[in-house]
């Protein structure tokens, strides 16, 4: 009986040593909210200051600590602000995983965030853009297609997609914004109230603007970027950053001329 008891104690002590619970209460791994991290990665690099995106600081800081542990980010940059330095560090991490191109743009995706968190944190509120589909003959991912359907319902009009996503080099005037996911151009031919259409797109999570020929080398259309789409190109990310800053998403960075709404992501819209 004594030998059995001794073995049991030894087993318990070994388990406690492995989990760090000898003489102390077990500490749960921190949780990283992916929605919050991606929102910060959309907004922070384009801010004129080092302010923290509301609700994102704690999760971003945990991700930054993980990057610092891999010697990809200076510890003094672990501050909860997902600025350009953190973007560069995350890009290096993505490349270390063998990623390239848009998969190594510095924008966190579910796979890389989960891999970075192994043994350090748990990942919650994940974003999944889904597989590719077609709408009006144009390629979109499922998340973007669902957002379009929701905006159509709110606007009371059927949109006609003239340019979709994953269209690298397809339209020169687009400046790379359609190279990845989340980007869409919409015809205005059957839309009488263009402001209402843009408003509906914004209300479901798009950074959207009514574009006219006076603004660039294009026909009149509505341009949208699905905020927090983890497949989007760096050029599209910059437009999302402009939108958060109240700007027009063009090279001149003029004031946003569209309808003002509460800025939300698709996930936030679905939660109401």
Write the layout of secondary structure elements.
Elements: H1 2-19, E1 31-33, H2 34-43, H3 57-69, H4 84-96, H5 110-116, E2 122-124, E3 132-135, E4 138-141, H6 142-155, E5 161-163, E6 183-187, H7 194-203, E7 206-211, E8 221-226, H8 234-244, H9 266-271
Parallel strand pairs: 1-2
Antiparallel strand pairs: 3-4, 5-6, 6-8, 7-8
Helix pairs in contact: 2-3, 6-7
| Spatial shape | elongated
Q: Which structural class is indicated by helix and strand composition?
A: alpha+beta
Helix content: 25-40%
Mean pLDDT: 91
Number of strands: 8
Biggest beta sheet attributes: 4 strands, antiparallel
Oligomer: single chain
Q: What is the CA-CA span between the terminal residues?
A: 61 Å
**Count of helix runs:** 9
Overview of this protein structure:
The structure is a single chain. By secondary structure, this protein is an alpha+beta fold. Helices cover 38% and strands 12% of the residues. The protein is built from 9 helices and 8 strands. It has helices spanning 2-19, 34-43, 57-69, 84-96, 110-116, 142-155, 194-203, 234-244, 266-271, and strands at 31-33, 122-124, 132-135, 138-141, 161-163, 183-187, 206-211, 221-226. The strands form 3 sheets. It has a 4-stranded antiparallel sheet, sandwiched between helices. A two-stranded parallel sheet has the order 1-2. A two-stranded antiparallel ribbon has the order 3-4. A hairpin with a 2-residue loop joins strand 3 (132-135) and strand 4 (138-141). It is elongated and about 60 Å long. The termini are far apart.
């Amino acid at each position: 009986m004594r030998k059995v008891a001794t073995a049991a104690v030894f087993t318990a002590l070994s388990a406690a040593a492995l989990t760090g619970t000898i003489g102390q209460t077990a500490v749960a791994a921190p949780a990283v909210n992916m929605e919050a991290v991606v929102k910060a990665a959309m907004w922070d690099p384009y801010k004129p200051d080092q302010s923290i995106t509301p609700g994102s600081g704690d999760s971003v800081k945990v991700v930054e600590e993980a990057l610092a542990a891999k010697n990809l980010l200076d510890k003094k940059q672990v501050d909860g602000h997902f600025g350009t330095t953190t973007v560069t560090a995350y890009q290096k991490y993505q490349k270390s995983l063998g990623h390239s191109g848009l998969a190594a743009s510095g924008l966190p995706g579910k796979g890389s965030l989960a891999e970075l968190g192994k043994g350090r944190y748990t990942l919650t509120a994940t974003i999944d853009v889904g597989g590719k589909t077609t709408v009006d003959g144009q390629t979109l991912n499922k998340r973007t297609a669902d957002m379009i359907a929701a905006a159509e319902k709110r606007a009371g009009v059927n949109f006609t997609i003239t340019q979709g996503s994953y269209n690298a080099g397809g339209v020169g005037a687009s400046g790379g914004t359609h190279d990845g996911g989340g980007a869409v151009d919409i015809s205005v031919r059957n839309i009488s109230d263009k402001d209402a259409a843009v408003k509906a797109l914004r209300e479901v999570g798009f950074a959207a603007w009514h574009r006219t020929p006076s603004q660039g080398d294009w026909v009149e259309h509505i341009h949208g970027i699905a905020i927090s789409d983890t497949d989007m190109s760096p050029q599209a990310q910059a437009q999302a950053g402009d939108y958060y800053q109240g700007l027009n998403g063009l090279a001149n960075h003029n004031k946003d001329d569209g309808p003002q709404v509460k800025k939300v992501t698709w996930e936030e819209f679905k939660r109401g």
